[in-house]
Specification:
This protein is mainly alpha-helical and 399 residues long. The protein has helices at residues 3-16, 21-27, 32-39, 48-58, 62-65, 81-89, 92-98, 108-123, 127-144, 152-172, 176-192, 196-212, 216-235, 239-258, 262-279, 292-305, 309-316, 326-342, 346-359, 361-366, 368-380, 386-394. It is globular.
């Protein structure tokens, strides 16, 4: 459902209840200006909790306002997601425990290389290559973890990193329930590896999963508790801790923006910016890609979430993200496209999405945000241009 359609529905049901905007806004704990912008379709409603409150006050089913919300309708299952879900459904450790035939024959140095490769593929959103690799890697790691020996802590660490990669891919594919399972397993294995920063990475992954599922209270709690735990270690000079700490505050900034808390978003961006300045350059500790460039990318994301398209476009100008992963480069361009969509500038939005597709084609064709944006762009023009139609067709938005 587009922002305009949702706004018209809210206005219809508000008027049906005989409420003015001035009367209705306090009932949902929002300003009259905010409500006016929502009803005119120029501002999105961010967060399932806000939609639930609106539905409750209007006395209408949530499905009436959000037919695609995860609580009221099943998400589509992308073809790439099924093998990963099946992978999480199998108990490879049990099979290896009861049948010696299935005990690992892969050596730790091979598992180490393949686990690193899994994250390379995850960072490039190359799901078609990542999935078969995880189908081989996770069973072998689960089997290796049963064998006591000097490499046991490293095997558990490799398991945690591989489950993190699995969680990241599932979250990008919109499979948030399965991504939660993968992230939870990663945290457990990180604990068995006695690596607190790997556990903190798990909290970072959970934060992304909860945001995708629109469970923003859980996302904030996961990030805040992990950031609080890491604060002392970061202040004592651990660059790895500082990276994860800064990355968590970037997510807290996005969460604040999605819940209309602009001042809090600015505060978290400032904390992250200070951490990045202390590092001095871009790093990729615990697969966070944290550093000055990623802070700038999140300044764009926060501005988009606050519906400040102009600030987002200005913030994006001049960012050189080539040192970051293809996934991060593509996500920046998606946010730029979202800003141009808010401006109703179809041509610029399509240009940004096309550039993103060249960098991470699988991310563009599978991302839920992109599909929603393409539907909105198609509605903005009575005769959509051929480039937009072809892009929408490749993303499965039109036949």
């Amino acid at each position: 459902m587009s922002d305009g359609e949702l706004g018209r529905k809210i206005a219809f049901h508000r008027q049906r209840r005989g409420l003015s905007q001035r009367e209705f806004a306090p009932l949902i704990e929002r300003s009259e200006a905010w409500l006016s912008q929502v009803e005119r379709g120029v501002r999105p409603v961010k967060g399932l909790d806000v939609l639930e409150k609106i539905a409750r006050v209007l006395d209408v089913p949530l499905a009436e306002l959000a037919p695609t919300a995860p609580t009221v309708a099943a998400d589509e299952l992308p073809a790439e997601a099924l093998p990963l879900r099946l992978l999480l459904s199998a108990n490879y450790a049990l099979r290896a425990a009861v049948d010696a035939e299935y005990k690992t024959i892969a050596k730790v140095d091979v598992l180490r290389v393949e686990a690193s490769k899994a994250w390379t593929l995850a960072h490039s959103a190359s799901y078609s290559e990542l999935i078969p690799l995880l189908e081989w890697l996770l069973p072998n790691l689960e089997s290796a973890a049963l064998i006591d020996g000097p490499h046991a802590p490293e095997v558990f660490a490799l398991l945690a990193r591989s489950y993190h990669a699995c969680a990241a891919a599932l979250a990008k594919l919109g499979q948030f329930d399965a991504a939660w399972v993968a992230a939870d397993r990663a945290i457990s294995d990180a604990g068995r590896a006695a690596d607190p920063l790997l556990m903190a990475e798990g909290a970072f992954r959970l934060t992304l999963v909860f945001q995708g599922a629109r469970q923003l209270d859980q996302a904030r709690h996961a990030a805040e508790t992990a950031a609080t735990a890491l604060q002392g270690l970061a202040q004592r000079g651990s660059v790895e801790a500082l990276s994860v700490y800064g990355a968590l505050h970037l997510q807290l900034a996005v969460i604040a923006a999605r819940t209309e808390r602009a001042d809090d978003a600015s505060k978290h961006l400032q904390i992250a910016r200070k951490a990045a300045d202390e590092l001095g350059h871009d790093r990729n500790d615990y697969e966070t890609e944290f550093g000055p460039t990623n802070v700038r990318l999140h300044e764009v994301a926060v501005a988009v979430e606050l519906s400040d398209a102009g600030a987002a476009i200005r913030a994006a100008d001049g960012i050189d993200a080539r040192a970051l992963s293809p996934e991060r480069q593509g996500r920046l361009l998606i946010d730029v496209a979202r800003a141009w969509t808010q401006r109703r500038n179809v041509a610029q939005a399509v240009t940004a999405l096309t550039a993103a597709e060249r960098i991470t084609p699988e991310q563009i064709t599978s991302h839920r945000l992109v599909k929603t944006m393409l539907r909105d762009l198609l509605r903005m023009e009575s005769e959509p241009n051929a480039e937009l139609v072809e892009l929408a067709r490749r993303a499965g938005v039109v036949a």
